[in-house]
Amino acid sequence: SQTIHQWPATLVQPVGSPLSLECTVEGTSNPNLYWYRQAAGRGLQLLFYSVGIGQISSEVPQNLSASRPQDRQFILSSKKLLLSDSGFYLCAWTLQGVGEAFFGQGTRLTVV
Amino acid sequence: QQQVKQSPQSLIVQKGGISIINCAYENTAFDYFPWYQQFPGKGPALLIAIRPDVSEKKEGRFTISFNKSAKQFSLHIMDSQPGDSATYFCAASMQNSWGKLQFGAGTQVVVTP
Predict the structure, then answer these.
(1) Given its phi and psi angles, is residue B29 left (phi above 0), alpha (psi -120 to 50 degrees) or beta?
(2) Rounded CA gap, B40 and A93, in Å?
(3) Is the separation of the CB atoms in A74 and A66 below 8 Å?
(4) Is B43 within 8 Å of A34 when comparing Cβ atoms?
(5) Distance (Å, rounded) from C-alpha A91 to C-alpha A72?
(6) Which residue of A49, A78, B44, B83 could cross-link B36, Cys pair, CB 3.0 to 4.6 Å?
(7) Long-range contacts of range A85-88, CB-CB < 8 Å, 24 or more positions apart?
(8) B42 vs A105: CB contact, 8 Å cut-off?
(9) For B4, which residue in chain A has the nearest alpha carbon?
(10) Arithmetic mean of pLDDT, A88-106
(11) What's the CA gap between A70 and B104, in Å, rounded?
(12) Cβ distance of B106 and A43 shorter than 8 Å
């Protein structure tokens, strides 16, 4: 069966520090991968998605970037965090374009 | 702008009652309408989903009703249980891009014993 892993679960980082969040998927090949952010009490907003290694599409302009160095690995990064980057970050995957989206357990990021 | 509007923001229902959450969308290109359930501190989990070619889908105590002409869909939770207390999100996405979801703002459901 397929599983998705995200780490760390929680993170507190000072303003201006770098960020690296990692997501890996097991049990499938060539998934579509997604990064979502959830602000407190809000719905999820799609940040990035990838249909293959090295292919990244950005949905909203922001202080973050994403990379996909391996088929089942998706990384969310920032060179310098802002207070507004705080939120709950969720990685998700689908079986290519058509299929239900399955979410990881998320990373709670607090920028102080 | 928010492409999927969800109401109510919160809902309190007694055990055994019916919870009803409504969503509306504008983009007629949306082709897939899932509902997700999220517990505090956890990622959302797919509950049930519907395509626009059917007007209703039922899975256990959960039913989606879909009105294509009105561009509305709703989730009904029958015989609500305290374990159903969670935040529920409706979402929508387009053909061949089911993972690129537009989410509603969420409804916090509390089921009282």
Answers:
(1) alpha
(2) 21
(3) yes
(4) no
(5) 12
(6) B44
(7) A85/A19, A85/A109, A85/A111, A86/A110, A86/A111, A87/A37, A87/A38, A87/A39, A87/A40, A88/A37, A88/A38, A88/A39, A88/A40
(8) yes
(9) A43
(10) 89
(11) 32
(12) yes
> How large is the greatest C-alpha to C-alpha distance in chain B, in angstroms?
42
Alpha-carbon torsion (B82, B83, B86, B91), positive or negative: negative
pLDDT at A98: 67
Q: Can you read off the two tokens belonging to residue B91?
A: 């979402």
Q: Which residues of chain B neighbour A104 with C-beta distances below 8 Å? A: 43
Rounded Cα gap, residues A111 and B3, in angstroms:
29
The tens-digit pLDDT sequence of chain B (113 residues) is 679 999 999 999 999 999 999 999 999 999 999 999 999 999 999 999 999 899 999 999 999 999 999 999 999 999 999 999 999 999 999 877 878 999 999 999 999 99
CA distance B94 to chain A (A): 10
DSSP string for B48-112? EEE-TT-SEEEETTEEEEEETTTTEEEEEE-S--GGG-EEEEEEEEETTEEEEEEEP--EEEEEE
